[in-house]
Amino acid sequence: MKKKKKQSYIASKLVKTQVVLRSPELAKHVPLTRPLTRSRLFRMLERYGMVYVKPDTGSQGNGVLRVEKRARAYRYRSGVRTLDFPTFQAMFRSVSKHTGRRRYVVQKGIHVLTYQGRLFDFRVMIQKNPAGKWECTGTAGRLAHPRKAVTNGSQGGTIFTASLLIKRSAGAAATTRLLRSMNRLAHLAAVQFSRAYPAVKELGVDIAIDRRLKPWILEVNTRPDPCPFTKLPNKRMIRRIVACARAYGRRYRLQCTKAKSAPARHR
User: Fold this and answer.
1) Which CATH architecture has domain 2-30+112-266?
2) Other beta carbons less than 10 A from residue 41's beta carbon
3) What is the rounded average pLDDT of the residues 126-131?
4) Which is more confident, 261 or 135?
5) What is the topology classification, in CATH, of domain 33-108?
6) What pLDDT score does 2 carry?
7) pLDDT band with cut points at 50, 70 and 90 for residue 267
8) Which element (helix H / strand E) includes 159?
9) Could you tell me which SUPFAM superfamilies the record lists for this protein (predicted)?
10) Does residue 7 have a pLDDT over 80?
11) Burial letters for 109-139: b for 16+ Cβ neighbours within 10 Å, e otherwise?
């Protein structure tokens, strides 16, 4: 118990998912996530048609595969490569070479909103402020590289002001509601992590919005990288993030070279 109280970094996606699922309200917004096995991948593809295969302890979108069942064939995307297979067996052999001996998870695929044919999602930063209260300090939109199925800036994603991306897909009326909903989900996640790991002082909650405008928590990061916020034209968020982190003793290295800023016409 003492070790748990002092632990502020949790690497396993499965462990973090279990923490979030302790909240019945949050559970409605978490896609099914399970340890990867051959039979489980087959069943989830039969049920959902599309899933993501991710390293259990990976970060920055490294090693993530988007796997699809297409009619009687199978396909997966790894980075900018798309591979097609005539059978599940052939596809799984290739996936197994990719995963090796590392522990992976398979997650229900969410058909998220897109902009100009590119996937996008959001990083919500929530931190303990100097008063010791959880505060949502920033939300950034992340638009995927045109040929990739992950949105991470480290994978060539482009960082947008969150409201601009939502408005382009969902309209102005839904934008305020969705931003508030994402903040609420981040707060609920922070409450759950505070109970399980009282030493946690910051979270980066990755949230996607599906085509029916339902938000989904894709992952919770306990050592979030604030780099995306340095790419926003308004520097208020990154200043607040840095100030809160300084209050609880964390310093960031804000050397962000891979993520792109949105073109000026989109700001």
Assistant:
1) 2-Layer Sandwich (3.30)
2) 20
3) 97
4) 135
5) Dna Ligase; domain 1 (3.30.1490)
6) 45
7) low
8) strand 158-161
9) Glutathione synthetase ATP-binding domain-like
10) yes
11) bbebbebeebbbbbbbbbbbbeeeebbbbbb
